[in-house]
Amino acid sequence: MKHLYYTLFFALMLCNDIHAQAVTKNSSKPNILYILTDDQGYHDVSYYGTKDIRTPNIDFIASSGMRFDNFYANSTVCSPTRAAILTGRYQDRVGVPGVIRTYPEDNWGYLDPNATLLPQELSRAGYKTAIIGKWHLGLESPNIPTDRGFDYFHGWLGDMMDDYWKHRRHDINYMRLNEKTIDPEGHATDLFTDWSVDYIKNQAKNDAPFFLYLAYNAPHFPVQPPQKWLDKVIKREKGIDTTRAKLVAFIEHMDDGIGKVIKSLKDSGQFENTIIVFTSDNGGHLPSKANNGPLRDGKQSMYEGGLKVPTCISWPGKITPGSVSVNNWMTMDIYPTLLEIAGTKPKDSIEGRSLYNEFTGSNLVVDANRSYYFVRREGNTRYGGQPIYAIRKGDFKLLQNSPYEPYELYNLRTDPLEEHNIIEKEQEKYKELNSILMAHIQVGGSVPWQKNN
């Protein structure tokens, strides 16, 4: 009996010690999980009531935190938005106005080696930093993840995958573990999910907070859901278009992976002290039958459907569950927000603005004079290596979708679907926005977007 008493006593003391360690860790700076998807449409989440898709885990982030209904990607395509995420700056001001690709003749960006990236800032604030998934900001040193502040990289160095099972682009293997080329088996979405789960479990043993940037390639084409996920969608959604069914299954498969990642946070006791950011890099790809809601157009376009993305942020005990933001924000605004949460400030001058007060409900003052600037540079005969631009200020948006066509002007308050070009009627507004736009272009033009040899 005495032996049993001491056994119970020491077991209780051990439990108390584990609990005390957990409290110590949980009372420190929050962990950060930043989930980025690729080409996910504005309404390709079920929290907007989209009837043919089920995304319970993305919905969970929204319902347990704040949903952002007017959140803009910095660009209409991949690399520029990713540059904005990691620098808090307009993409052309860090040398990435267009997509970074394998072959020089089709490459339209070079990440400024002097730009300070988010993992560098968070490392100085005491964070362990990791990227799992798609990088797409450089293929060689000095622009690979472990050169730019990430302690750990497990994922894809390049742009799109030509096949989610074979993991190749132009027959080149861009899958890496830090600097080492690897050739794992399995669907890329599952690999990124599993690697994230393992990372989170391992970080539970570490006293330092972590920053995990989980960047899925999905649902970027080629749309390749596992067969069982496609079968489930076809069985459930009677008469669904075949192309749409594949995309829905692809997103639902990814959402299931996000659920596993969230579960790993809960199972390891880290969920309550983790802020989760979810967003997409640009609007949905219309040929893949993406759903951008009622918005005009999709990926590659400066109309709203190419720029607005599904976005939500959860932070237990800090963000009111089920809250909604209707204010305008941009991808680059997450950068200063996370630094404020981490208790530090940007080392460099940046254009991003913290939305911390938005979701904490404390003294938010929306700047009505803020302009939102968008740029994308591209090749081929449609663009000829030239950029296209858009700028929004207040209710008005000036844009172009071809460098060879005139600008268009819309009042988004009265015409949110961009159906009525009013540039001829609103010449003074056109001149005002054009003047602001020219100033943006001049600043961006001073930054090289090709490597200086």
Write the layout of secondary structure elements.
Elements (H helix, E strand, L loop, with lengths): L1 H25 L4 E7 L18 H8 L2 E3 L2 E2 L5 H10 L30 H7 L3 E7 L17 E5 L18 E3 L2 E2 L6 H16 L6 E6 L11 H10 L5 H26 L6 E7 L23 H4 L3 E4 L8 E3 L3 E2 L3 H8 L14 H5 L10 E7 L2 H4 L3 E7 L2 E4 L8 E4 L15 H18 L9
Give a description of the structure:
With 453 residues, the protein is α/β, with parallel strands linked by helices. It has two domains: 30-360, Alkaline Phosphatase, subunit A, CATH 3.40.720; 373-444, Arylsulfatase, C-terminal domain (2-Layer Sandwich), CATH 3.30.1120.10. The protein has twelve helices and 16 strands. It has helices spanning 2-26, 56-63, 78-87, 118-124, 188-203, 227-236, 242-267, 304-307, 334-341, 356-360, 380-383, 427-444; strands at residues 31-37, 66-68, 71-72, 128-134, 152-156, 175-177, 180-181, 210-215, 274-280, 311-314, 323-325, 329-330, 371-377, 387-393, 396-399, 408-411. A ten-stranded mixed sheet has the order 7-6-5-4-8-1-9-10-2-11, with helices on both faces. It has a four-stranded antiparallel sheet with strand order 13-14-15-16, with helices on one face. Strands 3-12 form a two-stranded parallel ribbon. The radius of gyration is 22 Å and the shape is globular. Residues 1-27 have low confidence and may be disordered.
